[in-house]
């Protein structure tokens, strides 16, 4: 009962039996089908659209073009409203656009009685463009002189540049975009360049939604991670009050940050308004989800550091240019999160310089994705640590220990203290499990005599904040209702995405009220007309922030139950306790049950006791933040002539504070490690350099790991206690993704002696690096012909 037990997921049976209803399952059979027309250029302007032939297609009900929709701009990112102008989300999206900013941009939409009719109508539309050259990289976009957005004439969507002095004071300044390796103009901070690519979320459920009118309200059904924020964004897009909009979130078939954004919800709502309230559904194809939703930010990163004779980092600097893609989405927040992490995990003794830019390009828009910028900077940072250790003949583990953040570290940016830190214990436990020193030496000896097969052992660590305080508001609400059978109903708007938050909320409520979990029911499908307000699911915040709201509300309800029991049993509430759903007195005797109290309070017709349906509701505002930590160790082999990596084992050790459900926690780590392996080895979004069109927008050509590609994964937790959390817990949903790519790269470095600075580590990329390093000889055309 309660926390720290591996109780089964509340939604397990429904999901494995197919009983769970997702958005597409709920689309009414008579719903109209909506489809969007995508641009066939990456950069330019729509001059004219001819829809005459489209209207002739039988079954077409309505057509909208970029010339027919509201001309104002709105934000799409799922962050709560910020009243601070410095932290508001970027508003630069329109429902349909005349100004084309990527290949596939939405320029018109059709609604028809059938999928076939809608598709035929799209094919009948004729478009005239004024085309401009595609700007596919930050460098090309900045130097082009062609603004993609009027508010950003240099195509920079945001900047964050600063210097940290020896006293850890931060001074911000306004830098300029640069591709020069000298960071901050300092010759002694000449950075090594890293590149990390865009990555698609590849959740199984495609982006989808439908809308209809119910009375005076527009009802929008969407698998969105932040329903209350989505409602506000729909309001902004359509120019109608939020009270007229109701957002319903059913089960979610994966998200990883992608469904934090708003996509076709305003379009569906606009059509239903035009069509007398008829239901209109938009379901992206897999190809559309690849291009028209969001991606991880690709980044160019330059990292530099100086090390003294004792192995301490004395100076360090980083420049980071993030590919925003066509629109703002999360704005500069992802890049800012990344650039600051570089100075949190390994603070230098002296001068520290950070520069970052987020640049609009003619690419699919980047947004939130598991890790929120930290996997990108961690690749550069952790590869840099191994490179420095190799250069100065230091052990990578000991070098990290000497320089990494310790307990009571004061974050120079957000000014909060690190109150729990198990990073060193994570590293020590990983070294113990992998037998670090002995195996590294054994692999060195093996590699000395083996020319084709090389063995490597690498590692990487991370620090990841829990939630977004103080940059943004961290608030969550919870409502609890005690049923007359003694069971408990919980309403939250902290959305369950598959991470198991509903199950942990039930455990928290059970821990406080002692009502067994099997009698605790969490309403998993949110509804903004009913569900109390919550910022949503992002930043690994839910058990930390929303869990605090659940705990606080449960404590209120517990107190109510005991106070009412005191009246019913003529006792002092201070002498009463709850135990397994029973009311006990001072001597431990059972006076009754929670069910008895619920029934009598709800149905007693007495002049002495006023009836009351026992409920509780509260809002919790988090005023703290906490770092989660971890280390991953990777044991692998490299078949040098063919550039193939075989991962034999991954050991993932995490400090996520107290673990409230061990089985769910281990599952989170397994999933994150798998996603990290894909990021490291195979996943890359390929684009035609002439047109900007994506070449591999499907799950056949875009390579995510399969069950056959996942190695042995060993998971352990080093439990610390985080005092700001409801039960000492910290972030876990995103962290497992972060260290995998650099740990794999560092194992390749150990195996081959070859440093690679770009992901993914494909055979082609490795063979090129091995040829440059002289490990293998390139085949001549004559040799290939002879072979």
UniProtKB/TrEMBL annotation:
Its EC number is 1.17.1.4. Pfam families: Ald_Xan_dh_C, MoCoBD_1, MoCoBD_2. The keyword Plastid does not apply. One of its GO terms (molecular function) is xanthine dehydrogenase activity. Gene3D superfamilies: Aldehyde oxidase/xanthine dehydrogenase, a/b hammerhead, Aldehyde oxidase/xanthine dehydrogenase, molybdopterin binding domain. The keyword Calcium does not apply. Keywords: Molybdenum, Oxidoreductase. One of its GO terms (cellular component) is xanthine dehydrogenase complex. Residues 17-133 form the Aldehyde oxidase/xanthine dehydrogenase a/b hammerhead domain. It comes from the Bacteria. PANTHER family: ALDEHYDE OXIDASE 1-RELATED, XANTHINE DEHYDROGENASE. This is Xanthine dehydrogenase molybdenum-binding subunit XdhA. It comes from Dysosmobacter welbionis. The lineage of its organism: Bacteria, Bacillati, Bacillota, Clostridia, Eubacteriales.
């Amino acid at each position: 009962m309660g926390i720290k037990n591996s109780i089964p997921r509340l939604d397990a049976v429904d999901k494995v039996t197919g009983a769970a209803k997702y958005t597409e399952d709920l689309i009414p059979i008579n719903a109209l089908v909506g489809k969007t027309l995508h641009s066939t250029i990456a950069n330019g302007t729509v001059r004219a659209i001819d829809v005459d032939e489209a209207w002739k297609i039988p079954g077409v009900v309505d057509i909208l073009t970029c010339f027919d929709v509201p001309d104002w701009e709105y934000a799409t990112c799922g962050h709560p409203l910020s009243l601070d102008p410095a932290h508001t989300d970027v508003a630069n999206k329109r429902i349909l656009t005349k100004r084309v900013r990527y290949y596939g941009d939405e320029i018109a939409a059709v609604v028809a009685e059938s999928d076939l009719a809608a598709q035929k109508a799209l094919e009948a539309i004729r478009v005239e463009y004024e085309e401009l050259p595609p700007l596919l990289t930050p460098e090309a976009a900045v130097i082009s002189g062609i603004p993609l957005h009027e508010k950003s004439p240099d195509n920079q969507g945001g900047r964050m540049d600063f210097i940290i002095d020896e006293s850890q004071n931060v001074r911000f300044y306004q830098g300029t975009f640069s591709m020069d390796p000298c960071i901050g103009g300092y010759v002694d901070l000449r950075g090594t360049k890293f590149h990390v690519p865009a990555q698609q979320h590849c959740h199984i459920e495609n982006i989808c939604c439908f809308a209809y009118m119910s009375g005076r309200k527009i009802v929008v059904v969407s698998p969105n991670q932040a329903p209350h924020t989505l409602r506000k964004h729909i309001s902004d897009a359509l120019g109608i009050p939020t009270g007229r909009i109701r957002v319903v979130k059913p089960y979610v078939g994966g998200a990883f940050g992608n469904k934090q954004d708003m996509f076709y919800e305003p379009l569906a709502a606009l059509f239903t308004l035009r069509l007398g309230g008829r239901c209109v559904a938009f379901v992206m194809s897999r190809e559309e989800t690849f291009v028209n939703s969001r991606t991880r930010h690709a980044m160019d990163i330059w990292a530099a550091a100086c090390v003294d004779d004792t192995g301490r980092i004395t100076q360090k600097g980083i420049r980071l240019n993030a590919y925003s893609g066509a629109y703002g989405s999360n704005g500069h927040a992802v890049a800012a999160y990344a650039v600051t992490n570089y100075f949190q995990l390994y603070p230098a003794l002296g001068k520290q310089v950070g520069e970052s830019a987020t640049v609009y390009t003619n690419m699919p828009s980047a947004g939130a994705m598991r890790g929120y910028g930290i996997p990108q900077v961690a690749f550069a940072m952790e590869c840099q640590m191994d490179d420095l250790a190799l250069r100065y003949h230091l052990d990578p583990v000991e070098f990290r220990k000497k320089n990494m953040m310790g307990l009571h570290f004061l974050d120079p940016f957000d000014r909060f203290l690190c109150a729990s830190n198990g990073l060193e214990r994570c590293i020590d436990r990983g070294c113990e499990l992998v037998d670090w020193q002995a195996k590294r030496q054994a692999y060195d000896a093996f590699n000395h005599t083996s020319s084709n097969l090389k063995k490597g052992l690498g590692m990487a660590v991370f620090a990841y904040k829990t939630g977004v305080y103080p940059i943004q508001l961290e608030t969550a609400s919870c409502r609890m209702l005690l049923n007359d059978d003694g069971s408990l109903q919980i309403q939250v708007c902290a959305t369950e995405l598959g991470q198991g938050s509903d199950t942990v909320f039930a455990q928290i409520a059970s821990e406080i009220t002692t009502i067994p979990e099997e009698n605790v029911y969490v309403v998993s499908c949110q509804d903004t007309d009913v569900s109390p307000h919550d910022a949503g699911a992002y930043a690994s915040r839910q058990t930390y922030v929303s869990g605090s709201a659940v705990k606080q509300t449960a404590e209120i309800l517990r107190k109510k139950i005991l106070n009412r029991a005191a009246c019913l049993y003529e006792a002092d509430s201070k002498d009463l306790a709850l135990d397994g759903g029973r009311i006990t007195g001072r001597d431990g005797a059972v006076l009754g049950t929670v069910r008895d109290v619920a029934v009598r309070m709800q149905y007693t017709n007495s002049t002495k006791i006023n009836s009351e349906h026992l409920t509780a509701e509260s809002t919790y505002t988090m005023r703290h933040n906490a770092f989660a930590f971890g280390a991953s160790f990777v044991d692998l082999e490299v078949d040098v002539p063919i550039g193939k990596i075989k991962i034999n084992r991954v050991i993932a050790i995490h400090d996520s504070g107290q673990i409230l459900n061990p089985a769910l926690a281990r599952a989170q780590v397994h999933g994150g490690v798998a996603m990290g392996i894909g990021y490291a080895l195979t996943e890359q979004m390929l684009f035609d350099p002439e047109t900007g069109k994506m070449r591999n927008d499907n799950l056949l050509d875009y390579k995510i790991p399969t069950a056959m590609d996942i190695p042995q994964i060993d998971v352990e937790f080093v439990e610390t206690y985080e005092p700001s959390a409801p039960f000492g817990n910290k972030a876990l949903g995103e962290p497992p993704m972060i260290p995998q790519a650099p740990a794999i790269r560092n194992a390749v470095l150990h195996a081959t002696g070859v440093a690679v600075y770009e992901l993914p580590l494909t055979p082609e990329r490795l063979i090129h690096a091995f040829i440059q390093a002289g490990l293998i000889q390139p085949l001549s055309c004559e040799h290939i012909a002879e072979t």
